[in-house]
Amino acid sequence: MVKRVVIPQEFQEVAEKLNMSPAIFSGNHIFLSGMTGADMSGNMPEDPEAQFRNTFKKIACILHEANLDLDAIVEMTSYHIGLREHFELFDSIRLELFSKPYPAWTAIEAAALRREGALVEIRAVVSANYGG
Fold it and tell me: Which superkingdom heads the taxonomic lineage of this protein's source (predicted)?
């Protein structure tokens, strides 16, 4: 099976620096690497809302490169620092951005994330054949 990388221009530098792919097409799915709440310049805001919105914005940017939108996500896993402190805020933003049928979702409390200061990291599986 052939794998095809999805790298928006905004992610080119960081993908090369970290030797990773933001997303990979494989079969009928796209597998997204975990995204944290740093902005497109790499700055990590302290504000939880800004981090959560940045995370979804980066996911949307990757999906846009593949001619898809957030509704194409069929499964997502979110890893949280301080899950209980931020869950209601995170969930309210999630519900602003997704429509029915919602993706399958697992939220996990983590002891730490690779990126210092990150409160959330989200990975997702996307239907490459999504047609709305």
Answer: Bacteria
pTM to 2 decimal places: 0.93
pLDDT in tens, 51-69: 999 999 999 999 999 999 9
The per-residue pLDDT for range 9-25, each reduced to its tens digit, is 888 888 888 888 999 99
Q: Tell whether the torsion through CA atoms of 95, 97, 102 and 107 is positive or negative.
A: negative
- Is the CATH code 3.30.1330.40 the one for domain 3-127? yes
Residue boundaries of the structural domains of the chain: 3-127
**How many other C-beta atoms lie within 10 A of the C-beta of residue 61?**
16
d(CA 7, CA 66): 9
The number of beta carbons lying within 10 Å of the beta carbon of residue 56 is 21
